[in-house]
Specification:
alpha+beta; 3 helices; 30% strand; Yope Regulator, Chain: A; single chain; six-stranded antiparallel β-sheet
Length: 105
Amino acid sequence: MPNEKVFLDYILEQLEPIGDVRYRKMFGGATLYCDQKVVGLICDNQLFIKPTEAGKSFIGKVTEAPAYKGAKNSYLIDDIDNSEWLCELVLKTASELPKHKKKFK
């Protein structure tokens, strides 16, 4: 089931204080970027954040689930209404991820 635009826009609105956050629709879902790094996925109107040690420490009790059938587990985020908390989680996650490498042909 594809994401509703309202949900996608709500996630961006919650993360607006960070600044450089965007999503890109792909395969019925959306990829979430922070500072040009893939930090998560939005699938079926649910937010999944890439697993990192900093993210796990920050969240505490983590719920892991695949964003779609066949995907690796990510952190399923239920608390999307707390903008300050969500921003901190995304920033901590992005800080542990490598920069995106451009592919050249």
